[in-house]
Amino acid sequence: MNRNRKKKRTHVPTRMNLLFFAVFLLFSLLVLRLGVVQIVSGEEYKKEVERTEDVVVDTSVPRGKIYDRYGNVVVDNLPLNAITYTRTQSTSQEEMLKVAEQLSTLIEKETKEVTERDKKDFWIMKHPEEAEGKVTEKERQKLLNNEELSEDQVNSEIYQLTLDRISEKEINSLTAEDIEVLAIYREFTSGYALVPQIVKNKDVTKEEFARVSEHLQDLPGINTTTDWERTYAFDKTLRSILGNVSSSREGLPSNLVDYYIAQGYKRNDRVGKSYIELQYEDVLQGQKEKIKNITKDGSVLDSKLIQEGQRGKDLVLTIDMELQQEIEKIVEEELKKTMSRADSPYTDRAFFVLMDPNTGDILAMVGKKYAKNPENGKYEIQDYALGTFTSSYIVGSAAKGATVLTGYMTDNLTPGEHLIDEPLYIKGTPKKGSWFNKYGPAKSISDVFALEKSSNAYMWKLALRIAGAQYTRNEPINNYDPGAFTIMRNHFAQFGLGVPTGIDLPGEFVGYKGNTKNPGYLLDFAIGQYDTYTPMQLAQYVSVIANGGARIQPHVMKEVREPVSNSTELGPIIYEKEVNVLNRINATQNEIKQVQKGFYQVFHGSDGTAADAFHDAEYVAAGKSGTAEAFYYDPETKKNKETYNTTLIGYAPYNNPEVAFSTVIPYSHQTIDPAINEAISRRALDKYFELKKKRAKQGLDQSKVTKKVENLEKVEEIQEAAREENE
């Protein structure tokens, strides 16, 4: 018995020794590991603990202003009181929601942009347990077991099921206060971390601004500042071509995201979306303020300004806004007058373009259209200036100057040559004749008289010559070369007809080209009854004739100026648009002079088709009228209705042109020509010269506001040669 007890006593200390030894080893390993951490890797871990990140963010600045050629502000920036929110990289959803709830007690937030999806997302956030119960465990497991789905896809499927199963009753359980909090919260989440997001910048009252400013210490991320909004000084004038700017919520247009990001923009940057604002985005977009945020674990430790912001550069347009507005009134008045006529049931638009034929400056571009206002459903006359270069029409006899010059340039006609004006009898087609001599006897007329009286037969015979064809009464056209279409279109292109004018605005349309090339359509082409042209193309075309043969690029941008803070004065010129001569027509000065004489006779000859309107003007003008058979698509009957287009092109003064114009009135009449083209053109030119006199008396010399550049001398040389021949 004693022997057994002794054995037990010696067994216990052995196990304890083993335990102590094991503990000793563990502590030794722990001490060794701590030594490695502190001595070997200590510096590295210390740097990791102390590591911070430098994050540079951009702050938006106001865009450049837009002025007219006389320094009148057209587009400006209206300062706005604004409330912003900036979240950090570690800001949680719960923290943002808490701030949104606090802010909702201090401001009123518009909720009309809150969507059904926003409400569902918000309901899930407010009712997490109920939302989780929308999807059963069995459904979750089934999705998890689908090997074709990634973890993100599984979560997305579960979330979509949750959204789909939120009832209307549950959505309606959100109170008006909840919806207002949601409207604020969605602004918080609309952008990027460390980038201020606009919460409210419209109709921020002084009281709201003061209340928020007083509670900034209780509203992490919230700030009060000044924002801006684009304002348009001349209401609806030129509104369709000035363009628009995106909001901070819209950000970059979806179709241009990649382009802008490659240029250094952020997705929520405000940019020009259309026309001038888009075309000159690189000018109008300012230099952003750059701030370096020093962050640690997503929290901002410090912020440093590394680049001051500067608003965008100012853009000076070629447009004369006073003249633009006066001509808009004229066009509206004449359009309403014509629309009231019983024989003008389809008249719904009118266009007028005025440009300097020597420089390409667009002085006025007017488009008016009778259409339904989408906001109130009422019909009204709206701005449609963009239609001057984005819509095209059959222009009729206004194109005959190009036809005659094409005859000269192809050696199929000589200046002063006579052709017989007579009805044409082509087998298989109705009799074709000039409007003034459809049934009368044959007459020998010159090229100048053909333009003055607007002879169709003269142009037809010239087109047949160009096509190498032979006309025999009551027989088909023989030896006709369809290549004549290409020849004539190529020569018309020298004037800018049927090709881009090069105007510095996006979306220019070149018109439609007929695709049938039989002889009858070539005859129609020669009198402006086949291809379609824009009002801008017509203005460029008549400018070529006015300035002696140079096709000049039209433009609306005149200068870029350095912005000047707190001043109404224009800053120094950074860039000035130079005259760009695109090409010169392949015609001699004598040939151009011959067409100029014809255009003079149109406005002053005893048989001139526009002489009644211009013969008594204080200035001497020249040009060409046109009437074209056309079709109006009736949206109610879904049928094409036969009607007429009325056009007029011209320039003044005749011996030293300073303005060229085109007037286009689509679907102007059914029976008697109301001469709306003449009324608009005469009144518009009268207004131009009236304003010129008034400004001269005021001592406002346009040359001090807009000076011609050196390479204009090339164009002036052409004009001088033409004037010498005329004298």
TrEMBL record:
Q: Which Gene3D superfamilies match?
A: DD-peptidase/beta-lactamase superfamily (3.40.710.10), Penicillin-binding protein 2a (Domain 2) (3.90.1310.10), Penicillin-binding protein, N-terminal non-catalytic domain, head sub-domain (1.10.10.1230)
Transmembrane region positions?
none
Q: In which pathway does it act?
A: Cell wall biogenesis; peptidoglycan biosynthesis
Which EC number(s) are documented for this chain?
A: 3.4.16.4
- Give residue ranges for domain Penicillin-binding protein dimerisation: 60-298
The record gives the membrane topology as: Single-pass membrane protein
| Gene Ontology biological-process annotations | cell division
Q: Does the keyword Cell cycle apply?
A: yes
Please report the stretch or stretches of sequence annotated as the Penicillin-binding protein transpeptidase domain.
Answer: 351-683
| Major localization class | membrane
According to the UniProt record, what class of enzyme is this? Answer: hydrolase
Subcellular localization, as worded in the UniProt entry: Cell membrane; Membrane
Please name the InterPro entries in this protein's record.
Beta-lactam/transpept, Beta-lactam/transpept-like, PBP_dimer, PBP_dimer_sf, PCN-bd_Tpept
Q: What Pfam families does the database record attribute to this sequence?
A: PBP_dimer (PF03717), Transpeptidase (PF00905)
Record-stated family: Belongs to the transpeptidase family.
Q: What is this protein called?
A: serine-type D-Ala-D-Ala carboxypeptidase
What organism does this protein naturally occur in?
Answer: Rossellomorea pakistanensis
